[in-house]
Design goal:
GO terms for molecular function: glutamine synthetase activity. Helix content is about 30%, strand content about 20%. The chain has eleven helices and 16 strands. A hairpin with a 5-residue loop joins β1 and β2.
Length: about 450
């Protein structure tokens, strides 16, 4: 681990004001968990950090989901979590740095197949051995919102700091909105540069107080997902400094656009040539085979791409969210969009997931279709905008049933699919047993 010790030395030379380091471990929802240590204890991390294996299966509320079988049933055993090289970075707090951890198996010798980042790494290793090198770019949407909730507990739109009123007007790609939030965006951009985040700018999205941050294309898929974890954390930190709250909920407002997390993907060979294009510039057989594999996988992958009950509220006609397992060129209403491009950057934009998705899960699902592509022929790819396209499951219970019947276990590991299904079924059950204000209003005096 001499490389990691050199990383520490170089980091502290660049950021000598660092006093503490957040050791960040992401659970099944990609929520950052972990502990804060003094910076002088950082060198000890080279030997690993013990954390309960049940940390993987924490709910959105932060409780261990016992149904996954990693908690009390096992006696809450620790597994060793190792530092991920290249992830020691500053945060929005000048005195605090951060470092990502990855979990090992019970022997402490191999990466745990329960931890989705390790699963993604194995998918990448398999593709690389086959001479296929995925290139991805991520897009992340979010809302700045008021720190004070509405009386009914729901979120309120952000208070525009320039117009001195709450947001209410929808204006897609509104440049003036960027000016209104210039101080927040400037601080966010500065902090992103300090972290060396591979971002290409922010823009106003299609709802009041909604923004999108785009990441540049990269063939370092793991780093792209790591950076999205840090970007979400950074956006929250900077938003709080400007007296905003922020949400990555898929559908925080019933009558406004949801938050998406789109991923663009192409595949190149060892020389950087795009395998989705033939030498004459036309789409290659692999391109159509990958599309066919992706479309086939959509029904069984929805539960992975839409991890929460709120995720399914995002799907609706007329809101630029897909409702069918289809594809199309230069069309934002489909599940798989082929953006305008030449042969060298031909790519597929996967548009299903909301901003609440775990980025490692998202990348694993998308790249598993490249693994599966040889099992399909180009002729199995349906025509674009097919009227016979299957509907996307829009209820969490239906999506979980599809996941259990699907074949993702052979790509994402059966161990991970098992704990994921158990966790999400538990969360769904808890949600469905809650009594909501709406049903009380409807039924109190009419039932």
């Amino acid at each position: 681990m001499d490389t990691f010790e050199s990383e520490i030395k170089n980091f502290l030379q660049k950021w000598p004001e660092t006093e503490f380091v957040d050791l960040v471990f992401t659970d099944i929802n990609a929520t950052p968990r972990g502990k804060r240590i003094p910076v002088n204890a950082l060198k000890k991390v080279v030997n690993g950090v013990p954390l309960p294996v049940s940390t993987i299966t924490l709910s959105n509320a932060g409780s261990v989901i016992e149904e996954a079988g990693l908690g009390e049933a096992l006696g809450e055993p620790d597994h060793i979590c190792m530092p991920i090289p290249g992830t020691l970075t500053p945060t929005a707090n000048p005195s605090v740095a951060q470092l990502l951890l990855s979990m090992m198996d019970s022997s402490g010798e191999k990466p745990s197949r329960l931890f989705i980042r390790n699963v993604l790494e194995q998918i990448l290793d398999t593709l690389h051995k086959d001479g296929k090198y995925p290139v991805i770019a991520l897009e992340l949407e979010f809302y700045l919102v008021d720190k004070k909730r509405a009386e009914n507990g729901l979120v309120r739109p952000a208070h525009n700091p320039t117009k001195n009123r709450q947001e209410k007007d929808t204006a897609v790609y509104d440049i003036d909105s960027l000016d209104d939030y210039a101080a927040f965006l400037s601080d966010l951009n500065t902090a992103a540069q300090k972290q060396d985040l591979n971002t290409s700018g922010a823009l106003s999205e299609s709802a009041p107080g909604q923004f999108e941050i785009n990441f540049n294309h990269t063939d370092d898929v793991l780093k792209a997902c790591d950076q999205l974890i840090f970007a979400k954390r950074l956006i929250r930190q900077v938003a709080h400094q400007h007296n905003f709250d922020v949400t990555f909920m898929a559908k925080p407002f019933a009558h406004e656009a949801g938050n998406g997390q789109h991923i663009h993907m192409s595949v190149v060979d060892e020389h950087g040539e795009n395998l989705f294009s033939n030498s004459n510039g036309d789409a290659s057989p692999l391109f159509y085979q990958t599309l066919a594999a992706m479309i086939h996988a959509i029904p069984s992958s929805i539960a992975l791409l839409c991890p929460n009950v709120n995720s399914y509220r995002r799907f609706s006609l007329g809101s630029y969210t897909p409702t069918k397992a289809d594809w199309g060129e230069n069309h934002r209403g489909v599940a798989l969009r082929i953006p305008m491009s030449d042969s060298s950057n031909r790519r597929i934009e996967h548009r299903i997931a909301g901003a609440d998705v775990n980025p490692y899960v998202l990348a694993s699902v998308v790249l598993s279709s490249v693994l599966a592509a040889p099992h399909f022929t180009p002729e199995q790819c349906p025509p674009p905008l097919s009227k016979n396209a299957a509907s996307i499951p829009t209820r969490m219970s239906d999506a979980l049933a599809e996941l259990e019947q699907g074949e993702f276990g052979q790509y994402l590991s059966e161990e991970f699919i098992h704990i994921y299904s158990a966790c999400k079924q538990s969360e769904l059950t808890e949600f469905e047993t809650a009594v909501t204000p709406l049903e009380v209003e409807w039924m109190l005096h009419t039932a």
